[in-house]
Structures are given as C-alpha cells and as structure tokens.
Amino acid sequence: MQITKKYVNDLTYKILGCAIEVHKEMGPGLLEKTYKQCFLIELSLEGLNFKKQKRILTSYKGNEIDTELRYDVLVEDLIVVELKAKESIPPVDFTKLKTYLRLLEKPKGILINFNCNHIFREGQKTIVNEFYALLPDV
After folding, report:
1. Which among 29, 86, 122, 131 is most buried, taking Cβ atoms within 10 Å?
2. Which of 74, 84, 80 is CA-nearest to residue 113?
3. Rounded to whole angstroms, how far apart are CA atoms 105 and 28?
4. Other C-beta atoms within 10 Å of 129: how many?
5. E strands, 18-107, in order
6. Are the beta carbons of 48 and 15 closer than 8 angstroms?
7. What is the pLDDT along the chain (138 residues), one digit of tens a residue?
8. Cβ distance 71 to 50 under 8 Å?
9. Distance between CA 83 and CA 31 in Å, rounded?
10. What's the predicted TM-score (pTM) here?
C-alpha cells in the first residue's frame, strides 16, 4: 500500500474519533495516564496498530545517542500522538512533538488535551512537516 496524504488524513480522523470517544465516556478532569489507557483500548477496538512509550534514539555526528525522549503513542507507524490532561498546553509541548516527528521521520503528529470541553474544537492540534509534504495527494 502506498502512503498518501489522504491515507494519513483518514487515519488522523480515526485517531481523533478514538480520543473523542474516550472524552465522551470519561469527561475532563482525570490523570493523563487514565486517558492513555482508555485511548489505547479505543485504538485496539478500531483495529489500529500502535506502539506506546518507546524511546527515541538518534545520532550526533555518527554516534548513536539516547535522548531519553519517549513518545506517547505511534499509530500505524505514521502518526505520533502525544496525550495531555492540562489546563493549557505550553508551546514547549508543540516543539517537542515537532522534534519527535523529525527524529522519527514521521509525517504527522497530534497533540490531544483531554482537559477541555470538546476534543475536536479545542482539545487537539495536528502538526505536519516536510515528510508529509513529500507524500502524494491521493
């Protein structure tokens, strides 16, 4: 299967649907780890493949280094999802997600904050990069 922008966008829609379902069931005000467990269950129910809490390794001038960075969830080996349960999201969280995308060479990231009234309107932010720009449209 060829990975296209349409495929990545359709996958984004499914991922956000999972987050919306968790938020609908659980509501705001819980700990991030609770939302993460529920979100992983939803991804499984949707039949989506994912990896969780993996370390991000990188290299510097040909030397592999352990950055001690960990993403929350990588869905279908394409989209990095960072889950939060905060009053507001500081800019550093968006910067970290952009860095994860670059280091992992993934085309899209989604930051989801469950501490909101509506996931789709105010509780999520998607980020694309040069890897996304290189994908064919259809």
Report:
1. 131
2. 84
3. 32
4. 15
5. 50-52, 55-60, 63-70, 73-75, 79-84
6. yes
7. 789 999 999 999 999 999 999 999 999 999 999 999 999 999 999 999 999 999 998 889 999 988 889 999 999 999 999 999 999 999 999 999 999 999 999 999 999 999 999 998 899 999 999 999 999 998
8. no
9. 11
10. 0.94
